C-alpha cells in the first residue's frame, strides 16, 4: 500500500532489480544451451543495468535499459521467460496447493462434527422444523440461512389427499422406514445417502438425507408431538404410543410389507405436511501439532482415529475395522479410575438420589470430574446437558481404570453417544488432534472450541 507514496525513480529502481533477478535466473538456467553470442549479449545488458542502478540513474535511463534487457530475455529465456498466463496460473495454484496440504498435514486441518454425540457443546447435523407454511423462511431469508448456517430446505407436499402415515421399522436401521441409496455431494461428488419414506393415503413420499442426519428429530417435532422439543430418549416410546392411540395399518414400500403408524392427520392433495431445514454440523479447525509434544489434559476436546480400537462397535456391517476420526471429550488418562453414580449435584455440593435410568454424575478418582464447562453442566444437569448415562463398561456399580498408554473418551451428550462405555480405551498412538476454533456456521458456537 505504501507504494502509492514512492517516487517514480524509486519505483523504477525496484522494477530494475526485479528484471535483474529474472535475468540471473535465465543466465544460470540456460547459459550452457545458449549460443555464446546470446550469452555475451545477455551479460552485457545485465552489466549495463547494474551500472545504471549503481550510478542511481534517472527513471528514463533505467526504463530504456529495462526494455533492451527484456528484448534479449524474450529471445534467450526459453521456458523461464516469457511465461504464458496459463503457465503462471498453474504454477500459482500448484504452489498454493502444496502449501495448503503442508498446513493440513502438519499444523491445522478442518474437521466437521458429523453427529450430535457432543451436543450441546458442538452441533452435529441438526433440524429446524416449521410447524406451518407461514413459519417457513422466505426465499431471501432462506438464501441468507444457507450462507450463515449451512441450512438446506426440505419441503414435503402431499401427492394425494389422505392421512399421513409413518412406516415403522423395528430393526437397527431406525424406527422410521429408510434405506441407503447412492447420491452426490454438491451435485458432483458421489456419496451415500439415506432415503426415508412416509405415506400419504397410499402414496409414498421420500426424502434423501445425509447418513448422519437425525430424521427422528423431524418426525418427532413435525408429526408425533408437534409443539414439543425432540427428546431422543423418549421418541420411540412416543411413536409407539401414537400407534396405540390411532392404530396401525400396512402398506407396501419397495416391495416390503411395512406396518405404518397412523398420525390422525389428514391433508389435501398438494398440501405441505412436513417442512424442515437440514442444518450443517459445526466445522472447526483442529491442531495437529500439540499432542506430539504434550499429553492431552482431561476436559479437552479429543479427536482420535479408530484404527486400533478392538471392539465390535468399531466394525462395519462386513466386519471390517472402522478407520475414521471421532471427536469426544477426554475424561481419563493412564491410572485414572472412572465411575458413574446416579443422581446430580445439589447446592451444598452433595449428590441427590437418582435412578440408574436417569442421568448421573461422572466421578474421576472418587470425585466429580473437573476440567471443562461441560463436566459442570452435566453434573448439575442444566443448559441442555442431561448427565451421564450409566451403561456398558460404566454400568451401575462398575468402575474403569485407564491402563498405561491408553485414554478414555466420552461424549457430552451421554444418552446419544457411542463412546468409551461401549468400545473401551483409545490407544495413545491414535490420539490425533485438538479442536481449536469453530469457523462455520455462524451460530453461538462460533469462536474458540470449548
- The CATH topology assignment of the largest domain is Umud Fragment, subunit A
Assembly annotation: single chain
Percent of residues in helices comes to 25-40%
Main sheet characteristics: 8 strands, antiparallel
What is the architecture of the largest domain at the second tier of CATH? Ribbon
Shape: elongated
Order of helices and strands: HHHHEEHEEEEEHHEEEEEEEEEHEEHEEE
Span between N and C termini? 38 Å
The rounded Rg comes to 32 Å
How large a portion of the residues is in β-strands, by DSSP E? Answer: 25-35%
Structural class: alpha+beta
The CATH class designation of the largest domain is Mainly Beta
Overall pLDDT level: 88
The CATH superfamily of the largest domain is identified as: Umud Fragment, subunit A
Q: How many helices does DSSP assign?
A: 9
User: Which spans have pLDDT < 50 for at least 5 consecutive residues?
Assistant: none
How many domains?
3
- What's the count of strands? 21
SSE layout:
Blueprint: H1 8-30, H2 36-54, H3 59-76, H4 85-106, E1 108-112, E2 126-129, H5 139-149, E3 151-157, E4 162-168, E5 178-185, E6 189-200, E7 203-210, H6 215-224, H7 235-246, E8 248-253, E9 256-267, E10 272-279, E11 283-287, E12 301-305, E13 325-332, E14 337-342, E15 360-364, E16 367-368, H8 373-380, E17 399-401, E18 406-410, H9 420-423, E19 426-427, E20 431-440, E21 447-448
Helix pairs in contact: 1-2, 1-3, 2-3, 6-7
Amino acid at each position: 500500500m505504501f507504494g502509492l507514496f514512492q517516487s517514480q525513480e524509486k519505483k523504477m529502481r525496484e522494477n530494475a532489480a526485479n528484471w535483474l533477478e529474472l535475468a540471473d535466473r535465465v543466465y544460470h538456467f540456460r547459459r550452457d544451451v545458449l549460443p555464446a553470442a546470446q550469452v555475451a549479449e545477455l551479460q552485457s545488458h545485465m552489466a549495463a543495468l547494474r551500472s545504471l542502478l549503481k550510478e542511481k540513474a534517472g527513471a528514463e535511463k533505467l526504463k530504456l535499459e529495462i526494455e533492451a534487457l527484456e528484448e534479449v530475455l524474450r529471445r534467450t529465456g526459453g521456458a523461464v521467460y516469457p511465461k504464458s498466463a496459463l503457465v503462471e496460473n498453474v504454477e500459482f495454484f500448484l504452489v498454493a496447493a502444496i502449501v495448503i496440504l503442508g498446513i493440513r498435514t502438519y499444523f491445522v486441518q478442518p474437521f466437521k462434527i458429523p453427529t450430535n454425540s457432543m451436543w450441546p457443546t458442538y452441533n452435529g447435523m441438526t433440524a429446524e422444523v416449521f410447524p406451518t407454511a407461514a413459519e417457513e423462511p422466505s426465499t431471501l431469508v432462506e438464501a441468507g440461512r444457507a450462507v450463515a448456517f449451512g441450512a438446506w430446505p426440505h419441503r414435503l407436499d402431499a401427492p394425494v389427499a389422505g392421512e399421513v402415515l409413518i412406516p415403522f421399522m423395528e430393526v437397527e436401521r431406525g424406527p422410521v422406514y429408510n434405506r441407503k441409496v447412492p447420491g452426490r455431494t454438491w451435485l458432483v461428488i458421489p456419496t451415500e445417502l439415506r432415503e426415508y419414506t412416509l405415506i400419504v393415503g397410499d402414496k409414498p413420499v421420500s426424502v434423501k438425507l445425509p447418513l448422519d442426519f437425525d430424521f427422528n428429530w423431524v418426525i418427532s417435532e413435525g408429526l408425533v408431538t408437534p409443539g414439543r422439543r425432540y427428546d431422543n430418549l423418549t421418541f420411540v416410546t412416543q411413536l409407539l404410543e401414537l400407534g396405540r392411540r390411532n392404530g396401525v395399518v400396512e402398506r407396501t414400500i419397495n416391495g416390503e410389507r411395512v406396518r405404518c403408524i397412523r398420525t390422525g392427520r389428514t391433508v389435501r392433495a398438494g398440501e405441505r405436511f412436513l417442512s424442515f431445514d437440514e442444518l450443517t454440523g459445526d466445522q472447526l479447525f483442529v491442531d495437529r501439532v500439540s499432542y506430539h509434544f504434550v499429553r492431552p489434559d482431561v476436559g479437552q476436546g479429543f479427536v482420535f482415529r479408530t484404527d486400533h480400537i478392538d471392539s465390535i462397535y468399531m466394525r462395519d456391517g462386513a466386519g471390517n475395522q472402522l478407520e475414521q476420526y471421532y471427536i469426544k471429550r477426554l475424561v481419563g488418562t493412564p491410572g485414572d479410575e472412572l465411575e458413574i453414580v446416579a443422581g446430580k449435584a445439589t447446592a451444598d455440593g452433595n449428590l441427590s438420589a437418582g435412578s440408574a435410568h436417569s442421568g448421573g454424575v461422572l466421578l474421576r478418582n472418587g470425585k466429580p470430574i473437573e476440567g471443562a464447562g461441560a463436566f459442570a453442566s452435566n453434573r448439575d444437569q442444566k443448559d441442555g446437558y442431561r448427565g451421564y448415562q450409566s451403561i456398558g463398561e460404566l454400568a451401575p456399580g462398575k468402575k474403569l481404570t485407564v491402563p498405561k498408554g491408553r485414554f478414555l473418551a466420552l461424549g457430552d451428550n451421554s444418552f446419544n453417544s457411542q463412546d468409551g462405555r461401549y468400545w473401551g480405551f483409545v490407544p495413545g498412538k491414535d490420539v490425533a488432534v485438538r479442536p481449536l476454533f469453530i469457523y462455520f456456521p455462524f451460530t453461538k458456537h462460533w469462536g474458540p472450541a470449548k
